[in-house]
Amino acid sequence: MDDKILDAYLKAYGRETDQEVSFGLKEKFLSLPDCATQDVFAQDHKVWTINPYAWFDFMMPKAIGWTLACCIGIYFGLSTSDQASQYMDEEYYMYNAAQLILSENLTIEDKNND
Amino acid sequence: MEMTRSDHKLDTIADEQLMVRIGDRDRVAYKVLVDRHLRNFMAFAVRINGDRSEAEDIMQEAFMRVWNKAVEWDQNRHTRFTTWFYRIVLNLSIDVKRKKKSTSELSEAMDIMSNEMPADAVLSEKQMAFKIAEVMMHLPKRQRIAVSLCYLQELGNQEAAKIMDITTPALESLLVRGRRKMAELLDKKREEFLKDVV
Description:
Chain A is an all-alpha fold. Helices cover about 80% and strands about 0% of the residues of chain A. Chain A is built from 6 helices and no strands. In chain A, helix 4 (about 40-50) crosses helix 5 (about 50-80). With about 200 residues, chain B is mainly alpha-helical. Chain B is about 75% helix and about 0% strand. Chain B contains 9 helices and no strands.
């Protein structure tokens, strides 16, 4: 085959494969940084060293979240603290457990016809 | 993501400097880099893999690496961004090819299309592209990469050799063998087709 014809084939192939990328696909590529979660802390640490205001932007939502989590923990912790098991409850539970163990033993005995 | 007037200045900045900015988590710099290179590298991935959807996956992974590795980008190494990025796309393509045993869907589609071609008719550009795409997929991997880089991506021999991590004479040898093989395959296809018609 002549070199010129081969070049014409290659040029046609080059044009055919060099297509405009769709808007949707481009958007997908542009949103990739949102998906990148690797080394978040390492990267953000670098941001702090360059721009001190970035530290504030980075830390504030996290600090608010942690504070809220602590407050909710303390609130629920306090409200349920007086519901701890009491002496009478434990006794009742032990009585029930003993009954259950005894009934299991009886069943086994019945099965073996001893 | 909207660009302000000052952000438009980024359009004139070199890729390597954009990488430094991306390392500082600058999304506008990332956008400029994607706008600048997506089309060209997507075409390259399609040429190497023969399948557009596969190429899209590869490019997604490649740009993810740009974002993640930009933090480690060192301007003092004097590495060109395009050389580095070509290597990434190439390595990802090779990995995908390794995993994939069967021939690509595109080349199967090419078989059907090429059988429908008229004998002596002047081939349309699309038909020519389909024919050469099929031939490209039958080339040995290294020859295909060399042909894609030099004839389709229009890179210089030295840069292509650098991307492939081989010497320039070795690349030139690959190109000569690649062209010869492509010409042989195209002739063979034409003869087979003429036989079928007669």
